[in-house]
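Action item from last week, closing it out:
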Amino acid sequence: MLLSIPILCLVLKYNTSNDDKSIKAGIYIDEHSEYSNQITNNLVNDYDSVDFEICDNLKTLKKNVANGTYETGYVFAKGFKEKVENCETKEMVLVYSSPGTITNALTNEYVFSEIFKIYCIKELINYINNDSAFEKND
C-alpha cells in the first residue's frame, strides 16, 4: 500500500497533460498567514497531476466536495500558523473527502509534504535553540 502512492504519483505525473487534470482538490484558507499562503501557492503551482483550486468560502468547498467536483477539500483553519510555530501536529488541516474517492491518499500526501517543508524548518530551529545535541562552551 505504501509503495502504491509514489508509483501512482509518477504515473500521474508523466501520463497527464496540463490541460487534462482529472483530479481536482479544493483549498479554503480560514485565516490567512504566510504559511498557509505559501503552502497554497505551492500546491496550486507545483503539482501537475492534481488541480488544486482556491475557494472563496467554506460553503463552496463543502458543496464541491459533496457533489464530486473536488475529490478532496482542505481547510487551513484559524490557528494554523500558531500550530506550525509551536510544532503542534494534531489537526492542523481539516479534510473533506468526496464519497467514493480513491485519490485522497495522493492529495493528502501532496498537502502533507508542503506542510512538512515548513514544519521541518520550524522544528529544526526549535531543536537548535532548545534541545541541541551540542553543548555551548563559552
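Closing note: The first strand starts at residue 23 and ends at 29.
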